[in-house]
Write a structure and sequence with these properties.
The protein is an alpha+beta fold and 255 residues long. The protein has three domains: 39 residues; 106 residues, Roll (Endonuclease I-creI), CATH 3.10.28.10; 92 residues, Roll (Endonuclease I-creI), CATH 3.10.28.10. The protein is built from ten helices and eight strands. A hairpin with a 6-residue loop joins strand 3 and strand 4.
């Protein structure tokens, strides 16, 4: 028992050691176990685990990778089509981040779970009532590759090999999708891309899924509308399994 009469949190030294030797930081392990970094540090010291120097820790963070499976790459493509971004990597390796308002926490929780299952270190930071939440990954050489792929000249583009499977469509729609005011349209808000890239996405949706989306220009740029009833129904069926509770309303279409 602690001095306050509360039971002490039991820490699994084997797990802590395994995570640390696999490259996890003390702060990351502490966040996963809900304890302080100093608790993790003391446990590693008592177990006789060789600790990393500041240089070793920096190099480990800088050059680490994660398995680039099709599942992971499709998830990343969907996120990057929407609200996610990969930061500049000039000083070190790149990281991915997503900022969302406070009522969309369930989406960030779901994304974090998938990324962590793929071996990608993530944290979710409270940025205050006005600024909401921010999910950030650690720095990875694997994400530097994605930075070069999505931002070849510093400006975000749509890669020609972009994945548009169900997972990617879902993450794209949660990040930048909406329903038309009448409920008869599902819209991908692609205003951040050039007309050429938006038209490419429209054509790929047709080629891969047989839909007939249209491209429309508004005052901010170009968007993609999925308007045919059968196309909207098919899109909803594809992405519903990935829907976090905060986005149930985005699936409310009219038939």
């Amino acid at each position: 028992m602690s001095k306050l009469g509360r039971p002490r949190r039991e820490l699994d030294t084997t797990r802590i050691t395994s995570e640390f030797l696999a490259g996890r930081s003390e702060s990351w392990i502490a966040a996963q176990l809900g304890v302080s970094s100093s608790s993790i540090h003391r446990r590693l010291v008592s177990a006789g685990v060789p600790l990393r120097s500041a240089v070793e820790a920096s190099n480990l963070r800088r050059f680490r990778t994660f398995p680039e499976t099709e599942t992971v790459l499709e998830l990343l493509d969907g996120l990057l089509l929407g609200d996610a971004f990969v930061g500049d990597h000039q000083a070190s390796e790149a990281r991915l981040a997503i900022s969302q308002r406070r009522d969309r926490r369930s989406w960030l929780d779901a994304v974090q779970k998938q990324l962590q299952e793929a071996g990608i270190e993530t944290t979710i930071k409270d940025r205050g009532v006005a600024r909401g939440w921010e999910l950030r990954t650690g720095k990875y050489a694997s994400l530097t590759k994605q930075r070069r792929r999505w931002y070849p000249k510093g400006k975000k583009i749509v890669p020609l090999d972009v994945r548009l499977g169900p997972q990617a469509l879902a993450q794209w729609y949660w990040g930048d999708g909406s329903t038309g005011n009448d409920g008869y349209r599902m819209v991908f808000n692609t205003q951040g891309f050039t007309r050429k890239h938006v038209d490419f996405l429209r054509k790929r949706l047709n080629q891969l899924h047989g839909w007939q989306p249209t491209m429309h220009r508004n005052r901010k740029g170009f968007v993609i509308n999925v308007s045919r009833e059968e196309d909207r129904a098919a899109l909803v069926d594809l992405i519903r399994p990935y829907c976090p509770s905060c986005f149930n309303y985005k699936l409310e279409i009219r038939r």
